[in-house]
Amino acid sequence: MAGETLNPIGFLLIVVMSILTFALPRHQAFIPLLVTAVFMPLGQMLVVAGLNLHLFRLLLLVGIVRVAARGELQTLRFITLDKIFIAWVAVSVVFGTLAEPSSDLFIARAGDAYNAAMTYFFLRCLMQEWDDVLLAMRTLAVCAVPLACLLLF
Question: Which residue in 118, 130, 44, 52 sits closest to 85, CA to CA?
């Protein structure tokens, strides 16, 4: 499949974004994930044992390792919304798979669950103040300008 290759630009981008995820201070460490989500095509992935490891998923893994390694996970206090979110993710996997049961569909739903849960908890650990949310919005706004220009062509 054509989507199973990772071109040198994609590889370089994921390496740079991984380094930035570890190097930036807590209140900015989510910026590489946002930039990657906006600009990295889903076709850039590694396929390991039949699993599609999109670069976004790899960067999420780097982010979770960062949070655990720096002890930022300890600042997370579970609230009711977290429990509701976890239940929603679990129900989505179960009922999403039961709609048309197959191992391929289960793997796809599990990948979606990984994306949702890891993004949610990574951002929950890093975005602790209102200024962090504003920085995320500013980052997305800045990313929207070149993306809009690219979409014109």
Answer: 118
Residues 6 or more apart whose CB falls under 8 angstroms from that of 2 comprise: 43
The pLDDT profile of the chain, 153 residues, written as one tens digit per residue, is 444 578 888 889 999 999 999 999 999 999 999 999 998 887 888 888 777 788 889 999 999 999 999 988 888 888 999 999 999 999 999 999 998 899 889 988 999 999 999 999 999 999 989 999 999 999 999 999 999 998 888
Residue type, 39: F
* DSSP at 147: H
d(CA 112, CA 100): 16
Q: How many separate helices (H) and strands (E) can be counted in the chain?
A: 6, 2
Q: What is the DSSP letter of 75?
A: G
